[in-house]
Design brief:
The chain is mostly helical. It contains 10 helices and no strands. Helix 3 runs antiparallel to helix 4, helix 8 crosses helix 10 and helix 9 crosses helix 10. It is globular.
Length: 181
Amino acid sequence: MAALDSAPDALLAQRAADGDEVAFAVIMRRHGPYLKAFATRLLRSNSDADDVVQEAFIQAWRRLPDLQDPAALRAWLTTMVSRKTTDRIRSRKQSDPLEDIEIPDLAGDPEDHALGSDKMRALARVLDTLPRDQRQIWLLREVAGHSYTEIAERLDMPVPTIRGRLARARAHVLDGMSEWR
């Protein structure tokens, strides 16, 4: 397994597509923390994020033979997590009380240590103050790198709405991060 730890994503994806469970385990170890942090930021719940990432990895295992560009593995996995996260958010009742939503404690969280810097913690605090839709759009665009059209399709909103909410989110983030400039 040590030889596979340094293998490029494309090789791991190809081997996993051929049924190599060890290669897939390396993929999960390599990309799992990033995907969990991404899902946690969107869902604001560690347990929901764990579920979403697990569901995405199960789907990825089944669909790896369909992956067109094995070198784009991380983006492909992020897209899966993004879709699963969107599904999870949509399935929540709009009337869920805020007390029922688990807010992650980033101070002792391993992902926080992986992110590593005070600047990232400050960014996380700023993002937590955004409305849910703006935070989700900002993360999909700025972290996951999705296009406006992809975000609009995933969230079932018109592109101009996405652009407007993203502009408001960016302005809020810039203002909140002014001490770091």
